[in-house]
Design a protein that fits this description.
The chain is an alpha/beta fold. 38% of the residues lie in helices and 28% in strands. It is globular and about 60 Å long. Strands 1-2-6-5-4-7-8-15-14 form a nine-stranded mixed β-sheet, sandwiched between helices. A four-stranded mixed β-sheet has the order 3-13-10-9. Strands 11-12 form a two-stranded antiparallel sheet. The protein binds S-adenosylmethionine (SAM).
Length: 333
């Protein structure tokens, strides 16, 4: 268990589990990824302070439809979600700036319910800044924030204080998990929830390719900067010497896997080292590192997958074009 690092006021607990985690992992996932074939890196390394800010800019881009669409769905159905769950505390995995979550908090507030929020994010700066902003915006809100990756946070959740709990995993962050990782993740969600508790899942749905490709190759180059920032983050975290100017952003739709893939492509033959990991990696010109997959889903297929994990969809919400889905599930016996 990590130590409670600050308690600014009675409504905020900020718990940091990252120190324990880093001790345990020591960049093992980076070594495995960069020595594997093909080379890859886990998407969590996008999110240092700068990466989190770049992601916020991506959400504002005209080409990036997911955030806008999911926001519309939440605005249209926030009240309906609250009616189904009744008073409920929200655990959010990968909470970022909690921008869309405010729509849910507003809906619980409008229903006259107590507000309790447990955001979880690997980006500790973004997490604590957001928690402090939220406390000012919602005088009746209590927060227990966990700076952590998903799994340790789920096993360290404090005792439930409201009649029900809703785990929110929105933004289609589930699309960053491979099908096998997704199964393990849903198992964990199912084990964490009590029977009758809720899971709210945001899903980017399959759609025409032009919109998909444009969303990950924006004209202002923000997605490219976000992708390349992962190398700067690794340089800082593991004393590395990636020359970011010698890599380029590549994003395309993989038809077979039904996923957008983002890669970092080496523009030269080069060797890169990460001193703290005792790692040296050779790149030929054109070699790629897979930095993110973003799977695009079929809603009914996902409903079946959820059911296998004892998560029954009780209310599926979508937009007019059916570009994005928000599935409210309940944990069944
Ligand atoms: C795609 S963003 C989504 C943010 C927000 N939920 C939204 O819908 O806009 C993913 C968020 O998850 C966090 N994140 C990524 N991998 C994580 C991990 N393994 N554990 C915890 N947080 C993670 C990132 O820091 C980031 O804030």
């Amino acid at each position: 268990m990590g130590e409670i690092v600050s308690e600014r006021e009675s409504r905020l607990v900020l718990q940091n589990l990252l120190a324990d985690d880093r001790e345990k992992e020591l960049g093992k996932d980076v070594v495995t990824g960069l020595t594997g074939e093909p080379k890859s890196l886990p998407p969590k390394y996008f999110y240092d302070e700068k990466g989190s800010l770049l992601f916020e800019q991506i959400c504002e881009l005209p080409e990036y439809y997911p955030t806008r669409t999911e926001t519309l769905i939440l605005k249209a159905f926030g009240g309906a979600i609250v009616e189904k769950t009744g008073p409920c505390e929200i655990v959010e995995l990968g909470s970022g700036s909690s921008t869309k979550t405010r729509i849910l908090l507003d809906a619980y507030q409008a229903a006259g319910y107590p507000l309790r929020y447990l955001p979880v994010d690997v980006s500790d700066t973004m997490l604590s800044e957001t928690a402090n902003k939220l406390l000012k915006e919602y005088p009746n809100l209590s927060i227990h924030a966990l700076a952590s990756t998903y799994e340790p946070a789920l096993s360290a959740l404090p005792v439930k204080q409201l009649p029900a709990r809703l785990i929110a995993f929105i933004g289609s962050t589930i699309g960053n998990l491979s099908s096998q990782e997704c199964d393990q993740f849903l198992d964990l969600i199912s084990q964490t929830l009590n029977i009758g508790d809720y899971f709210l899942l945001g899903l980017d749905l399959q759609k025409e390719r032009t919109a998909l490709k444009a969303a990950y190759n924006d004209s202002q180059g923000v997605t490219a900067a976000f992708n390349l920032n992962m190398l700067t983050h690794l340089n800082q975290q593991f004393e590395g010497n990636f020359d970011v100017s010698k890599f380029s952003h590549v994003a395309f739709y993989n038809e077979k896997e039904q996923q957008i893939e983002m890669h970092l492509e080496s523009m030269a033959s080069q060797q890169v080292s990460l001193k703290d990991l005792g790692l040296a990696v050779e790149f030929e010109k054109g070699d790629r590192i897979l930095s993110e997959i973003s799977r695009k889903f079929n809603r009914l297929q996902m409903e079946k997958t959820l059911a296998k994990h004892r998560l029954q969809v009780i209310a599926p919400y979508t937009d007019e074009k059916e570009w994005f889905g928000l599935l409210l599930c309940q944990r069944t016996p």
